[in-house]
Amino acid sequence: MKVLARTWIFTQITVATVLYCGDVMSAEKAPDTELQDVVQAGDKLLAFKKMDGSNDGEEGAAAIVRHSEPDANGNTCELLILQRTASEWVVKERSGSIVDCLFNDLARNARDLSANLTVSEGKINYVNQAARSNVTFEIRYDRAKSTWFLFEARSASPFENPKTGKMGVVMGRARFPDEIPFTPLSKIDPEALQAIMDKHPKTLD
User: Fold this and answer.
1) pLDDT tens column, 44-64
2) What's the rounded Cα separation, in Å, for the pair 146 and 54?
3) Where are the domains of the chain?
4) Which of 30, 64, 138, 200 has the largest count of CB atoms under 10 Å?
């Protein structure tokens, strides 16, 4: 398990370093031309994955878009929850904080974030990859409330044991409802979550 944990961190960091490769998924190369209503001129589509996220039989998708202009907080990237209505894709929910293109150089300069985004029925995972650490956001769909919410955030970063000089992994977690309240997608605050995860770290040598 310890070896696997260290390998996992190394693999995740390696994935981040190769995100510069490949073509940018621009609106012109989007899976459907209808996405041009979502991806505006000057924007870049960094990831797009179809799903039946709410398990209602309707075609949906999760997308990551880098906008040409930043939002009020200075971030240029958004995670979008889309649903097909007739021949168009419309934005149902969004988060301007999960995909960090303000402080995270790797995401800000990435050409493709598809490897960081995974989807399944009622679940979305996004790995906010940094040079030496990562935070995974697990988003789930609440059918009773008809909305997406944060189920769990997990952090992982390497550290050096000052006594032995050996490298290990520090892991943190914030999970609903144990450590965090019900948090809709648009209200997720990564900085507040990191403070919670840092309170109960676990180390793997």
Assistant:
1) 999 999 998 766 778 899 999
2) 8
3) 2-204
4) 64
